[in-house]
Amino acid sequence: MKPGIETIPCGNGTFLPLAQHNAPAVPCAGCSPDTIVRVSDLQNFPAYPAPTGMEPNGWAIVGLAANFWAGASAQIGEGLLLGEPAQVMFTPIGYRWDYGDGTTAVSADGGASWADLGLTEFSSTPTSHKYAARGSYSVTLTVDYRADYSFGDQGWRPVDGIFTVPSATESTVLVAEDCNANPRGPGC
Questions:
Q1: Which of 13, 22, 45, 76 has its CA 20 to 30 A from that of 6?
Q2: Distance between CA atoms of 64 and 81, rounded to whole angstroms?
Q3: How confident is residue 84, by pLDDT bands cut at 50, 70 and 90?
Q4: DSSP string of 95-125, one letter each residue
């Protein structure tokens, strides 16, 4: 935070600068508090995919937890909304993981690395997964965002609907044996 710059707090402890717009010279038809903005109106405002992480570094051991997380945070974009200059803020509200083996999970936050959580390697986390069979799996994440918009300095208003953004795919290659079969394998 800097003196003289208005900011918006984000869920991850950082602050985004709030851009200042001059008040419109003519009345703005879309600026009415009664205006309903829907997710389909946000075509000029992309939300960007969240960076993802996986440990241990792209591989896993059958029967032990592989940990996944996403670094999604609030995003603000400027552009035209309903023909008027506006800002749109996307805030992550949900994460849907597809672990590639027919198993899925939903979490309220994007998870974190074992180190950030203060856990040892292969510990279970809300976003980790234990694979039952060896093989190669593609893990995908979809992040749901709540959107809010602002015309000029009129304050933030909610957008009707949820904005869904698929993120990058993490590939996981499982080793051929678990620690019982090969006690000297990685992570055993």
A1: 45
A2: 48
A3: confident
A4: EEEE-SSS-EEEESS----HHHHT--TT---
| Residues 188 and 58: beta-carbon distance below 8 Å | no
pLDDT, tens only, 128-182: 999 998 888 888 899 999 999 998 777 899 999 998 988 766 666 666 566 777 7
User: Rounded CA gap, 68 and 53, in Å?
Assistant: 6
SS3 65: strand
- CA distances 51 to 19, 71, 87, 99, Å, are 25, 5, 23, 16
Q: 127: Cβ–Cβ under 8 A, 6 or more apart, which residues?
A: 67, 68, 69, 95, 97, 105, 107, 110, 111
Q: Give the list of residues 6+ apart from residue 146 with CB closer than 8 angstroms, or none.
A: 90, 91, 93, 158, 159, 162, 163
